[in-house]
């Protein structure tokens, strides 16, 4: 069984190398839509300053996201997706943030 797994792994590595070199096209492409930050913030009812503080970014960064000059990445993007998908987490964010203010 180990030889079979090793052979599968080597085949994957070879395919990845061919994709990188442009000799082969990737079989699977996953595209994720950009989060609409302004709409997500609107769900919370928070101002730009409070929302930025709540998610741990500067107000200027949030403004850039909302105006499309920049796009959230990494954990900020993941948090925005969670807030967009789960209204309970939006309410939780609002209640936790307002209780600290």
Describe this structure in words.
This is Helix-turn-helix domain-containing protein. The chain is mainly α and 101 residues long. The protein has a domain at 37-91: 434 Repressor (Amino-terminal Domain). Helices cover 68% and strands 0% of the residues. The N and C termini lie far apart (59 Å).
Give the gist of this structure:
GO terms for molecular function: DNA binding. With 101 residues, the protein is mainly alpha-helical.
Instruction: List low-confidence stretches.
Output: none
Beta strands, count: 0
User: Could you name the CATH class of the domain at 37-91?
Assistant: Mainly Alpha
Helix-strand pattern: HHHHHH
What's the story with the biggest beta sheet?
none
What is the CA-atom radius of gyration, in angstroms? 20 Å
- Tally of alpha and pi helices: 6
| Secondary-structure arrangement, i.e. CATH architecture of the domain at 37-91 | Orthogonal Bundle
CATH topology type of the domain at 37-91 = 434 Repressor (Amino-terminal Domain)
Strand content: under 5%
Q: Assign an overall shape.
A: elongated
Helical proportion, percent range: 55-70%
Protein name: Helix-turn-helix domain-containing protein
Domain HTH cro/C1-type: 37-90
GO molecular function: DNA binding
Keywords: DNA-binding, Transcription, Transcription regulation
């Amino acid at each position: 069984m180990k030889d079979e797994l090793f052979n599968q792994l080597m085949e994957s590595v070879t395919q990845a190398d061919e994709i990188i070199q442009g000799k082969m096209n990737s079989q699977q492409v996953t595209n994720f839509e950009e989060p609409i930050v302004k709409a997500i913030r609107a769900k919370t009812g928070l101002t730009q300053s409070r929302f930025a503080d709540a998610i741990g970014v500067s107000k200027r960064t949030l403004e850039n996201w909302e105006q499309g000059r920049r796009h959230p990445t990494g954990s900020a993007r993941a948090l925005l997706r969670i807030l967009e998908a789960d209204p309970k987490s939006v309410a939780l964010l609002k209640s936790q943030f307002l209780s600290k203010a």
